Amino acid sequence: MKITFTINNKEKTVEVSPHQRLLDVIRKELGLTAAKEGCGKGECGACTVLLNGEPVASCLVLAPQADGAEILTVEGLLSEEGDIHPLQQAFLDAGAVQCGFCIPGTIMTSYRLLQEKANPERQEIREALAGNICRCTGYQKIIDAVELAAEKWQAGGEVQ
Amino acid sequence: MFGFGYGEGFPDHSIASLEPIDNDKILIRTSAADVGQGVKTVAVQIASEVLKLAPEHFVLSEGDTHITQNAGSTSATRQTYFTGHAVKEAAEDLLGNIYHYASQEFVTNHPEMGTKEGRVFSHVDPDQEMTIWQLRDKLADEGIELKGRGTFFPKTFKPDPETGQAEKVYVGYTFHSQVVEVAVDTITGEVTVEKAYSAVDIGQAINPQAVEGQIEGGTAQGLGMALMEEQIIEKGRTLNPDMSRYLVPTAVDTPEVETILIENEDNDGPFGAKGVGEPAMIATAPAIINAIHDAIGVRFYELPVTPEKIKEALANKEQ
Amino acid sequence: MSKKYIGKAVKKVDAQAKVNGEAEYTEDLINEFSDLLHMRVLRAPHPHAYLKDIDISEALEVPGVVAVFTKADFPKLSEFGLIIKDQPVLVGKGEKMRFLGDAIALVVAENDAAALRGREKIKLDIEELEIVEDPLQAMEKGCIQIHEDHDIEVTHYLNKDMCCDNILSDNYIDRGDVEKGFAEADHIIEREYKTQFVEQLPLQVEKGIADYDNENEEIIIWAASQWIHDTQADIAQAMGVPKEKIRLKQPVIGGAFGKKEDISVHIHLALAARELKRPVVLLYNREESMIAQSKRHPQIIKHKTGVTREGKLTAWETEMIMDTGAYASSGPAVVRNAMFHCSGPYQVENVRAVCYAVYTNNTYCGAMRGFGATQMGFSYDNHMDVIATELDFDPFEFRLKNAFAIGSKTPGGEELNHGVNVKETIEAVHEASNWQEGDKDD
Lengths: 160, 319, 442
Known about the structure:
Chain A is of the alpha+beta class. Chain A has five helices and five strands; from the N terminus they run ββαβββαααα. In chain A, strands 2-1-5-3-4 form a five-stranded mixed sheet, sandwiched between helices. In chain A, helix 2 packs across helix 5. By secondary structure, chain B is an alpha+beta fold. The radius of gyration of chain B is 25 Å and the shape is elongated. Chain C is 24% helix and 24% strand. By secondary structure, chain C is an alpha+beta fold. Chain C has two domains: 187 residues, Aldehyde Oxidoreductase, domain 3; 171 residues, 2-Layer Sandwich (Aldehyde Oxidoreductase, domain 4). Chain C has a seven-stranded mixed sheet with strand order 3-5-1-12-9-10-11, sandwiched between helices. In chain C, helix 6 packs across helix 7 and helix 9 runs parallel beside helix 10. In chain C, strand 14, helix 9 and strand 15 form a beta-alpha-beta unit. The chains are: A alpha+beta, B alpha+beta, C alpha+beta. Strand 5 of chain B pairs antiparallel with strand 11 of chain C.
């Protein structure tokens, strides 16, 4: 079957099978490999993308469910010129990246959090990110990064 | 405490090389695996320091058995120490070669020369100046390759099999002390680690932010080992082979860690550095268990200390 | 002299590619291959059994299945392993499976679904054996031997009936005079500590792609490894080919923590790519990774410590038994690393330690952050706290009194003459935490 959706502001029509996972469509059919598979069961958060603005584990979403949807992945945060987004920059500045496997998913959850709440408390950031497992960092610098991005936003920099 | 390097007389070394490429880059060849800890960044910082050249001028080779030489494993808390040393020696070798060949071009002595941001120049005659890449091209015309190579191969000794004693067992030791504050919910048995204070005898942090990252991540893994993680294997079968039944710490489980770096530059590592990867996690589990004892007066001897075990122990204590 | 780039929070050189999605981990390379074959591994149905027969005929008939490889296809295959070559690449007919991760057949197909269907169609006939569940059982008199050819001469026995057939390695420290040290002590404190199987759980599980380069007659493997040159050597010796015919390329690694030191996908992929002359991919899932790849060794640790009424340690005796699982992996080194940290950063003149690594039918154990010293660290610093509590010492004062200083000797007898700032670390956390005895909220 054919489905049509918008991903990173571009409309795409792809041929999928009814039981294909959204994660596979994004990674294999569209070649957008930032979203990662860490468990395949919705337990780790590495495959998190925004589906109609909400973070979802794309390994648990079936492709037909994305028909007509709007999807955002980490690749979609880059500017037209390819510059990284202030939230991505904050992850670099805070030293929040180690192996990096969880980072694309973690950034998408953080992005949604900052849209919802411009200036979250550290505990609120922790709770928002509870579904994004990171085995490297102990989360502290990830939380620093989200705080840093929030500060930039407060200071007038656009988060979007 | 953690003794780093393979130790015990095992051959343990790292080989690295540096060469100017393109018109403003230096390629660092190393096969050291960066698993996220940051050995690539450490290599760049060390080469930057030696060559007085900003980090953005360095690129790293891909890990490939056919284009790099042995750097040993990313284990034993050894890469900053071993590959750090090898890169430092390679950078010094390259610097020595730059001086050697540039002094021939300038017809000057080494003490009269300097390097900065990719340029080599004569203090005596300001017109005598060229970039590393110009020097490389000149030498290439003469069939000479400008590069630097470094190997670090320190010695340890095999302990006596009967007594386990040797003059030098490991190349160095990293020490890490930690205090943790815990709260124990005596009804649910849940333990919350509220705060951790770490002090690590690191010699010299090459990258303090990365060292903190190791301590914070190590603390999370130590917390997991102390309180929640266990692969349950019965009759050879794993009963919990997924992440909903094998639990690791999430962002709501881990504490804020305050890290203090003890930097006395008194170690044999590059610029006095020690490794930190493994010692980062060792202190946490005992600190948590000792804190639980301090909080509720119950001593645990077996890991992990799950809420069920806490509840059971408190019930037994009441009786 | 002040330094410009050392001691600075220079941005990680590979971080930008990781935040913008450009970083290429192994699985991100899949799209670059047009005619990729998919592999699935059939693993042991029982943790301890002889493989009597294997029938792959139905699997070969599944549409899409290209090949099913068993040990019979590779008569020259040798065992692999980081230190001791005791782990089979494939368990052949008449041979033993020793844990549930042992590979029996490799199914290669045009797509993953066909590989899975093919794997279901393989029929095995096995002869089940007694399962050795833990190291204490493995050391009981009359216990079945897990590695039939394993031979070891153990120097020290814990008791006269002890079975040594399953002991992978025995290790000892004997310094000073422990009996004299206990005689000098005012108190002797003895406890037993136990640790569990821990999974390293890097977020990226084992994945790999292999291809055959016809021109150079080389096998190229893209897969994570914590040490590509060692992995290359292990693959080459197992396959019986020169090292330079195995080319390992290192994509970005999604965490390791020790789990990516061992061979996983590598040899299976190399064999298939060489036989089929096509690229092949093998992607473990989390369950397969947890069952088939290494764990942190569970340890049973006994410490017996002599201490004076002033709080000085006079003797330290450690006995440790470690479950190494079905294969050696890093076990022979892990047990020694644990042993050389047996009394931690505390100065003791008289030290004795006896440490064993013991085979069982559990998932094999290998490297994980701390390499045996983490388990030992849990026990020695818990033990120090037990002593402080029992004898009513201040926990900081007691540690400071015994902590290493210049001139101290490690359990391995190494005299420390520089880089010893243990006391500074203890004092620093004491101050930072604003520690006060009895500082508690209800």
